[in-house]
User: Which sequence fits this backbone?
């Protein structure tokens, strides 16, 4: 059965974007290094949202509940940053996936910031080594 996860490519010093939302080139280089191509439904991979297309406005709990219902036994992914933090704080996040890239950005946007009820304990990671990236999968421990 699936759960709710968040995933981000992150620099060794803990950032998912450098100051001014730059640094993406370094963080996503490894996407081209693998032997397996993973396509999407739309090759241009365009994401757009607006007030008219936002389908849930009753808060994070309602949004995750609706996504889980639609996903059935599959996993539901939530965006990093504020959305992931809200899910974590509401007890809705089951797994944190980090694609750790060997680069130091020196500052920027952290994956998680200002987490209420910190420290939050995670399981030992499942580790998958890649070419210029190490994938780490942590289960969120519940008290």
Assistant:
């Amino acid at each position: 059965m699936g759960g709710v996860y968040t995933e981000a490519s992150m620099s060794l010093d803990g950032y998912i974007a450098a100051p001014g939302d730059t640094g993406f080139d370094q963080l996503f280089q490894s996407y081209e290094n693998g032997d397996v191509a993973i396509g999407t439904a739309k090759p241009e991979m365009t994401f757009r949202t607006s007030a008219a297309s936002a389908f849930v406005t009753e808060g994070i709990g309602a949004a995750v509940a609706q996504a889980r219902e639609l996903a059935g036994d599959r996993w539901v992914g939530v965006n990093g940053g504020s959305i992931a933090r809200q899910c974590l704080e509401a007890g809705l996040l089951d797994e944190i996936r980090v694609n750790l890239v060997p680069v130091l950005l020196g500052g920027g946007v952290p994956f998680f910031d200002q987490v209420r009820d910190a420290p939050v304990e995670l399981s030992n990671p499942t580790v998958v080594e890649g070419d210029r990236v190490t994938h780490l999968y942590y289960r969120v421990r519940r008290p």
Remarks:
- The helical segments are 24-28, 60-71, 82-89.
